[in-house]
Amino acid sequence: MKHTPVFQPLNTKLIAIMSGIVISLTLMGCGSPEELAFIRDCKLSGGSSELCSCTWKAMSQQYPPATLQAMVKGKVPAPQDYGQYLIETIQSCAKQSSH
Questions:
Q1: Which residues contact 25 (CB under 8 A, 6 or more apart)?
Q2: Sequence-ordered list of residues with C-beta below 8 angstroms from that of 58, at least 6 positions apart, any chain
Q3: What is the pTM of this model?
Q4: Do residues 85 and 62 lie in contact, with contact meaning Cβ atoms separated by under 8 Å?
Q5: Are 56 and 37 a contacting pair, CB within 8 Å?
Q6: For residues 76 and 14, what is the distance between their CA atoms, to the nearest angstrom?
Q7: 28-79: per-residue pLDDT in tens?
């Protein structure tokens, strides 16, 4: 009998969602279309509407959308805690949506 680690599916989904977020951050414009693009790409990566909306709200409160876009394009360096914050945000939102 083959056993699959309990956390492997979560890690795979987390990586897919993070990839979608990075892609959406790369494609963002300005104004409300940023949020729509972020949520669309997050959902295409496997996130629910609730998870993606929660993640957008937290990320855009921590980092202004223009700053996020500049980081992804390499115009400004990402803060040292950016990757960890993104992971924690997704995990926190996932916990909230599962209750």
A1: 38, 68, 69, 71, 72
A2: 89, 92, 93
A3: 0.62
A4: yes
A5: no
A6: 25
A7: 444 456 678 778 878 998 999 999 999 989 998 998 877 776 766 678 888 8
